[in-house]
Amino acid sequence: MPELPEVEIVRRNLERWWQGEAADEVWVLDPKLLRDTDPDALAQALRHRCETAGRRGKYLFCELAGGRAVVFHFRMTGKIICADGPEPDYARLSWRVGDAWLAFTDPRRLGHVELVDALADYTPIQKMGPEPEGLDADDLRELLPERRMLKTALMDQEVIAGLGNIAASEVMWRLKVAPRAKVGELSDAQFDALPEAIMGWVEDTIAAESGDEVEYLALGRDDNPFTVYKRDGEPCPRCGTAIDKAKVGGRTSWYCPSCQS
DNA sequence: TAGTCTGTTAGACA
DNA sequence: CTGTCTAACAGACT
Question: Known catalytic residue: A251?
Answer without folding.
Answer: yes
